[in-house]
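tool_log.txt
---
The assistant was asked to compare two proteins side by side. It first ran the structure predictor on the initial sequence, then on the second. Raw inputs and outputs are pasted verbatim so the downstream comparison step can read them without reformatting.
(1)
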Amino acid sequence: MRPVNLLPYEQRRRAPREAAAGGGKGAHGVLAVLTVLLALVAGYVLTSNQVTDNQNQTVAAKAEADRLEAKAALAADYVDFAAIAEQRVASVVGVAQARFDWERFMRELSRIMPEGSWLQSSDASVTGALGTAETTAPAPAAAAVGPSATLVGCTPHQSDVAALMVRLRQLHRVNDVELVESAQEQAGQLATFESCGRLYSFELTLSFDATQPASEAPPGASRVPASLGGGS
């Protein structure tokens, strides 16, 4: 006969197969919990690493922006310096272009002045706009385009004015000499710097070429050369 266990089911000793079946369910639960915890930890680590990377990228981007800003500021200083240098060069060029060559003009003029003659005043401009001395003769109708000069002085004879005009036409870059006035001021009076007295006063207007000619004026000498209307 098959034996019958009369003990209640709750008090019966479990068989090894049933115990193993019950223990397997608990192990599966533990593994599921561990898996969830591991996924949470992995997600936290990944999120934390991503945040750290973003922070590092932000710091690097800020440092690069600061470097580029400093470089741009330095380049702006160079641009400002270049602009200032260009303005100064343009200013110097403008001054040079507006400068009348008084040194050469006076040096040449001193060689051709007739004996006993002198200048009372002189004026010149590279634009032809002259503030000439007061004269009784009217000013030329056509305005000068190139440089021009006005000479006012005294000379012993009327013929000296004509000789001076011939010599002036031979000066550097002079293309025309116009007589504005030539007359004896006061016969019998002594000549002074302010008044020609018994001598002849003259006023001449010189016009110059706008561009420098190919030939230069002759070198200096103790006497007026023949090329300037003199006798040497």
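(2)
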Amino acid sequence: MVHQADTPAGEATLLAVEGVSKRFRSGSRSTQALHRISLHLRQGTVTGLIGPDGAGKTTLMRLIAGLLLPDEGLISVLGIDVIKNPLRVQRSLGYMPQRFGLYEDLTVRENLDLYADLQGIPVADRPVRYADLMTMTGLGPFPDRLAGKLSGGMKQKLGLACTLLRPPRLLLLDEPTVGVDPISRRELWGIVHRLVKHEATTVLLSTAYLDEAERCDDVVLLHHGEVLGQGHPADFCLPLVGRSFQVSLPDIPRRTLQNRLAQAPGVLDATLQRGGIRLIMSAGAQINPATLLPGSPGARVTPVPPRFEDGFITLLKEKEKHSDNASRGTPVFHPAPDRARNSSVPLKEHQNPIVVDRVTKRFGNFQAVKEVSFSVSEGEVFGLLGANGAGKSTTFRMLCGLLPASDGTLRVAGKDLRRAPAEARAHIGYMAQRFSLYADLSVSENLSFYSRAYGLSGAAQRERVAWALDEFELGDYAGMTSSQLPLGYKQRLALAAALM
């Protein structure tokens, strides 16, 4: 296990967390969010907070910001006790939560004015700071644009600008790049590194992207409220030297090959890669093609260097092996089961279940989509890629019959969406960017509601809800309201609802 509890000599500790625990209680349910967490942040560094859904990342940030009180332990920022002096600490740090509270009916400048008022920034000091922030975030050309009209990446940058109105010594960013395009992610990271280099800001940043974790000076791995390790990203690769491989086997579908390898002795993890399957072997396990894939003499096994992602997943899976909570698992890392399609509405055979032919969508004089054409084959995963504002969501909404196309043809399951949208929608599950969960309903109640909306009842409904709770590992959360779920579990619930 990689662990770095102590700060190297000569480097100032800006944040110290010692033996912190936090438990939440709701009715008869009790959840241990954090258990005796200890970590240190060095001044002028970027530390990544990494972990699966529900690991405790958001809870830890709220405790550091003085928004929650721990059940036990100590938290110190700049030598100030957060528990005793939360307001003093909050004047020295900036905190950007997952859903920053922008006012969408206010312009960019009006949002800045509002947060400047809340932070007590003198009016005379604002123009220079605004100018710096607008240049830093690239929002300079858009001071009068409504926040609700900004792309996802621009909203995140405006939220960051509002957080940085008063230059913080410590900046807490809770998954700031979730839901933004790769260009905006890169721009946000550019802002973070500029803050560290030019303003001596120390940053604690949680992220769902492991490639982002590799950009950090240090990373802290959380799992079920415990620290698995802290150190430089490269340190997590060292124990895996000689244990990572790529396997290819001609004429066998990659997903089938993945599932076979995942069940082979000594295999800790098997993931899809271009050109084959990436394997991580258990410590001491021997790599033998004949044992991995008996009866398949054409298998090719090639050593590859370990990555940070390999170290992260290895720590998680080794922890699960020895954990009392192993039954909960970490489903995001499990290989997809090779099972038959399970649908309440049978889909007839079509060569191309989705066909988009020269489709255009206009909003007044603005063309959101211009003569787009593509088709999707049966059983295919087809990706629409593009920056925020490229037209992806508009295309999805047209495919679901929620927006009429201005020109062109859209067909789903053989149904023309311009002529028979209701019939086409019977074959479609749709999970939007802003998924429509009912915050005051429990997980089970949300699934029951959506299953009824899709026409299920009686035994069929009960079976489908039970399937969703099991497939998405939501059983432990069945009685929890959706508003209380971590973001990743909300996404799972929304996808389960779309598959009713």
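---
observation on (2): The chain has a mean pLDDT of 86. Residues 182-199 form the longest helix (18 residues).
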